[in-house]
Amino acid sequence: MTRSGLVLASYGTVRQEARGRDIEPLVRELREAVPGAPFCEAYLSDPVRRMLRRTGEAVPGTLGDALAALADAGAERVCVQPALIVFGSTYRALLAEASAWEGRLPGGVAVGEPLLSSPRDVRDVAHAVAAAHPMRPGRALVLVGHGATGGANGPYLVLRNELRAQGRPDAFLGLLDGAPGIDEVVAGVRAAGLGAATLVPLMLTAGGHVARQLAASAPGGWQARLRAAGIDADLDMRGLGSLPAIRKVFLDHARTALRS
Question: Per its UniProt entry, which superkingdom is the organism in (predicted)?
C-alpha cells in the first residue's frame, strides 16, 4: 500500500493566541483523520515566517520544506490541504509548487480544494457563520475577506447571497482587496437603516495586518470609518478556523484529495 503523507498549508500567523484558536484545532483534526500518516505544516506567508524567526519561535517552513520532510519520512504520496478561502493567486502558486514535486514522490501530490469550492461548501459555510453570529436587531453582520486577484472574488459574493437566502438580510460583505470595499459596506449598512455593525474576518485566522486595517485605533480602519458614519461598530477577531463546522469542510476536502 502506498504510504500517504499530509500537509496543512495556511498563511500562518504571528499571534500565538490566534494560532491556538484558529489553526491548531484544524491541525489536530487533520492528524486524527489520517492516523499514523506523516504530517507537516507549511506557512505560505514569507513575512509571517520572517517575523516568527526573529522572535526565536519554532516556525513551520515553506510548502517545499514540508514536502521534502515528508519524502524523507518515507511518504510516497502527499495530500496538501490548503487552509485558503477561494481559488486565488495563492492557490495557483501552491498548485504550481506542488506539481514541481510530482516526479520526486512516486505517488504524486494531491491538492485539496479551498473552503468555498462548491455550492454545498457555500451552504455549509453560510450555516456555520450564521450559527456563530446570530441575528441581532438593528445590527449588521459584516464579513470581511482578504479578496483575491484574477477574478476569484465571486465565491465571496455567492456566500453573502446564500446568507441572505437563508434569512440573513443583515449580512454584508467587504473585501480588503477588491470590491465591495469599505465605502460600499458603509453605504449598504446605512441604506438598510441599521445603526450598528459587527465586523467579522472571513479568514482562517486574522493576523496583525487585519487588525490594523479593521480596528478603530487604525487611521482609516474599517471600524473607525463605520463609526464616523454614525454606525456603532465592534470587531470580532475570531478566525473561521475556530468554528468546528468550518474545519469539517476543510477535512472533507482533504479526504476527497486523499482518495483521488
Answer: Bacteria
What would the mean pLDDT of 129-139 be, rounded to a whole number? 97
Give the phi and the psi of residue 179 in degrees, each rounded to 5. -115, 145
Q: What is the pLDDT of residues 199-251, one digit of tens each?
A: 999 999 987 777 788 886 777 889 999 999 999 999 998 999 999 999 999 99
65 lies in the same domain as 143: no
pLDDT score at 254: 95
Query: What's the pTM value of the predicted model, to 2 decimals?
Result: 0.94
| CATH number reported for the structural domain that contains residue 228 in this entry | 3.40.50.1400
Cell of 210: 487585519
Number of domains in the chain: 2
